[in-house]
Amino acid sequence: MLFLSLILVAYSVGVQAYHPYFLSQLAKQTKEKESGIETCIALHCAFESGLCVLDSVCFQTLQCMMGCSGQADESQCQFECEMTIGNGNEAFERLLRCMAKNDCFPEVPPDGICLPNPEDTVQTITSIDDVAGDWWVVRGINCGQDDVWRGGYDWYPCQHERYLRIDDGSWINNTTYTGGTNSNPTTDVIVTIPHATMPSNGLIRLEYDDEPLLPQIERWHIVAKPEDSYMMVLWCGTNPALDYNGGFVLSRTRTQDFMAPESEQAFRDVATQFGIDYDAMCITDNSACDPNP
Global pTM? Predict the structure, then answer.
């Protein structure tokens, strides 16, 4: 039971928020603080932990994850286990909620750096209406390339955002993407739909209610929009387990191929202001993705 408890603790960070990179980090920290975290789960979440182990889907997820151990793509393998088997499983989500409520998560270092402030945004963008519709991620910052930007959130294939006003007048960001990296999908399409508001010019606040670990909040800072078809966003996210950050260039089309040279230079200049090498950002070609996800 100790081993399963440690696996469950390690497996406590979700989609853009509980990415598989943190499995190894959490497992390492759990080993270092083993008795404290196990005691917390035993005292506060023993029932939920037992349900997870007894639930066939939850247990299958754990077995799948353990089967990834030692593989060269261990993190990606574990991510696919979670997204293709465990995502949406009530026993798993119930355990996560219990752990969050009782502060059973180990401390995890932030993934990436929250680079912008609210005043760094494009001040002429005053409403979500100004960016409504479809956007594709075509260039990213957090690509799993080093010890700072570890999660790889900005290199998921087929990553698509659609800002829509719903019947009650509020906004959502219908977000779709797949597991994988470098334009190579490894899972079916994943969907999450956070609520969107604009608390200040050029700043979009996304609040999720369809993730297992809540509250989960992301702040998307639009720091450049040199033409109608492209914009640069630097984002900062948080949930009860960790802070996670990144940034990307969004395009109205599935690639960056039609970007004007002047726009690319504008993005390069803005990226430099935040200490980012624009030309080192990972590029995604979404040409093979469903054009209307």
Answer: 0.82
